Amino acid sequence: MSYKIRDISFAERGERSVKWAEMHMPVLMRIRREFSADKPLKGIKIAACMHVTKETAVLMETLQEGGAEIWLSASNPLSTQDDVAAYLVRKGIHVFAWRGETEDEYYSAIKTVLSGHRDITMDDGGDLTVMAARIGINAIGGTEETTTGVIRIKALEREGILRYPVIAVNNAETKWEFDNVHGTGQSALDGILRATNVLIAGKTVVVAGFGHVGRGIAMRARGLGARVVITEVDPIRALKAVMDGFSVMKMIEAAKIGDIFITATGNKDVITEEHIMEMKDGAILANAGHFDVEVSVRDLEKIATSKTDLRENLTEYTLPNGKRVYLIAKGRLVNLVAAEGHPSEVMDMSFADQALAVRYLLSRKLDPGVHELPREIDARVAYLKLESMGISIDSLSDEQKKYLESWMI
C-alpha cells in the first residue's frame, strides 16, 4: 500500500463517520450490492480527485466492491476529512490527501494518483483531467462532478487536447437539481453558521450568481429570515431571480447594503477591492464556488492594514478606512472547509450517478469528448431514490405513450 495522509490512527473515528453516511445513502448502497455480485470493474484502475469526505468514502468502497483498484487525491487543499482518509487507507485504497496541503503538495498528490496506468479518471473541478491532458494520459474514460469542471473539460475538448471520453455527471438532473440546489443551499449556510454563529434572520444576504447553486443558497437564506439580494451578469437568470421575489442589482450597489456576501458563479474577481471598500463595517465574505478566486483574496491582502484569525475558518481584515470585513475559509469552498460538505442524502444520488457512469464507460466505446449521462441512468437513480423514501409514482399506459408520440389528438 502506498499512501500519504495525516495520521492512520484516525481510522476508527473515520469508520464511524462512514457508517453514518452509509445509513443515509440507500441508492448507492444498493448499487454496491449489484457491483459486489457482478464485479463490473474487475481489474480496472481508477484515478480519482475528489473531496475526501465520508460520502466520497461510500463511493470509493462501492467502486472497490465492483473490483476496481483506486488511487485518490483531494480536489481541494482544505476539504479533506483526515479521519476518513485514514479509514480508506485501512480499506486498501491508495489515498494521497490531508487537510492543509500546500499548493505544491496538492498538485503533487494529483500527479501521484495519475502515475502509472489508469483506466478511468474521476474528477471534481477538472484539475485531474487537465493534468492528464497535459501529460498525455489516454484513459478508457472519465467522469466530472462539477459545473466548473465541465466548463474546463469542454475547453480541453474545443482545443483538441481531451484524449478520451468524459461523462459530465454534473449535468444529470439527479445531480444538479438536488446536489447543486439543495446540497449547496444547505451546506453553504451551514459553513457560514459554523464559522461565525451569526443570526441570519434580519440580515441582508447578497448572493452572486443565480444558477442552480445560487438559487439554492438564496432559497435557504430567505428561509432563515434574510433579505436576499442577487447579483448577476446573465439577463435571463437575473429575470428569474426577480420573478422568484428577490431583489436584483449590481454588485457595486449591493456592496453598500449587504451583511453577508456569498459568491456562486464559477468565475474570478466577483468581489474585488472596488466592492470591498464600499462594504459595511463587519461584512462577512464567503465563497461557494469551486476555486478560491471569486472573492479576490489577493485584493484583500493588498489593501488590509491588519489581519487577524479570530476563529477557526474566520479571518478579520481591517481596511484603510477603518472598517473590518471577515473572510470565511480563506475564500475556499465554504461548505467543505468550514462544514462537512453536502448532506449524505443528496450525495447519494450524485455518487450513484458517478458509479453508474463508470460502469457505462466500460460497457461501450465512446469517442473522445464530453458526453452526457444517459437519461435512463438518470431516471433509474431517481426511481431508486423515490423507492428508498417509500414513494411510488404512476407509469404511462401503452395508449398514453402512443398518444405522446403522435401528432393526432
From TrEMBL:
Substrate binds at residues 53, 124, 145, 175, 179. Pfam families: AdoHcyase (PF05221), AdoHcyase_NAD (PF00670). Keywords: Cytoplasm, Hydrolase, NAD, One-carbon metabolism. It is an enzyme of class 3 (hydrolase). Residues 180-341 form the S-adenosyl-L-homocysteine hydrolase NAD binding domain. Its EC number is 3.13.2.1. One of its GO terms (biological process) is one-carbon metabolic process. SUPFAM superfamilies: Formate/glycerate dehydrogenase catalytic domain-like, NAD(P)-binding Rossmann-fold domains. It is found in: Cytoplasm. Binds 1 NAD(+) per subunit. Pathway: Amino-acid biosynthesis; L-homocysteine biosynthesis; L-homocysteine from S-adenosyl-L-homocysteine: step 1/1. GO terms for molecular function: adenosylhomocysteinase activity. Its cofactor is NAD(+). GO terms for cellular component: cytosol. NAD(+) binds at residues 146-148, 180, 209-216, 232, 267, 288-290, 335, 342. It catalyses: S-adenosyl-L-homocysteine + H2O = L-homocysteine + adenosine. The keyword Cytoplasm applies. May play a key role in the regulation of the intracellular concentration of adenosylhomocysteine. HAMAP family: AdoHcyase. Belongs to the adenosylhomocysteinase family. This is Adenosylhomocysteinase. The lineage of its organism: Archaea, Thermoproteota, Candidatus Korarchaeia, Candidatus Korarchaeia incertae sedis, Candidatus Methanodesulfokora. The gene is ahcY.
